[in-house]
């Protein structure tokens, strides 16, 4: 099993429910072709560097998964025929160093850092002032 990362950009003109259905379809393509999803990162709607199909923005979603190399061509074929996706990119992590980086990315997504102590104290002080 190799380690992969897919970034997909979904059309921003879709409703929230349609975006969720589109993302679920993307994940289903990966799992139905033998991939195991390790982490998901919904980055939200962001401005694109340049317009794609007259869209200035797109919904960015990153999926980290493991799978067989033979399934990537089928996954990408299914991405190409999905009209709700503006763009996608598949990144393969091959070397030991790259796999270590992939594991760190997965850990970062699955275990986001907690807020620094200074921000927590400031938030508690603001709450106490609001209660007074």
Please count the beta strands (DSSP E, at least 2 residues each): 4
Per DSSP, what share of the residues sits in E-state strands of 2 or more residues?
A: 35-45%
Head-to-tail CA distance between termini: 58 Å
List the helices and strands in order: EHEEHEHH
Textual characterization of the structure:
There is one protein chain. The protein is of the alpha+beta class and 132 residues long. It has a single domain, classed as Alpha-Beta Plaits. Helices cover 45% and strands 36% of the residues. It is built from four helices and four strands; from the N terminus they run βαββαβαα. Strands 2-3-1-4 form a four-stranded antiparallel β-sheet, sandwiched between helices. The N and C termini lie far apart (58 Å).
Summarize the structure.
By secondary structure, the chain is an alpha+beta fold.
Please write out the topology.
Elements lengths: L1 E9 L5 H17 L3 E17 L2 E13 L1 H13 L3 E9 L2 H15 L6 H15 L1
Antiparallel strand pairs: 1-3, 1-4, 2-3
Notable traits:
132 residues, alpha+beta, Alpha-Beta Plaits, four-stranded antiparallel beta sheet, globular, disordered C terminus
């Amino acid at each position: 099993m190799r380690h992969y990362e897919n970034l997909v950009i979904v059309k921003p003109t879709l409703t929230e429910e349609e975006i969720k259905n589109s993302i679920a379809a993307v994940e289903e393509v990966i799992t139905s072709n033998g991939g195991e999803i390790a982490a998901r990162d919904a980055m939200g709607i962001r401005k694109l560097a340049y317009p794609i199909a007259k869209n200035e923005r797109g919904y960015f979603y990153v999926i980290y998964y493991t799978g067989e190399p033979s399934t990537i061509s089928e996954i990408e074929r299914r991405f190409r025929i999905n009209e709700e996706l503006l763009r996608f990119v598949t990144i393969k992590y091959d070397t030991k160093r790259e796999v270590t980086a992939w594991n760190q990315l997965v850990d970062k997504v699955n275990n986001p850092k907690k807020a620094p102590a200074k921000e927590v104290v400031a938030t508690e002080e603001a709450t106490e002032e609001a209660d007074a």
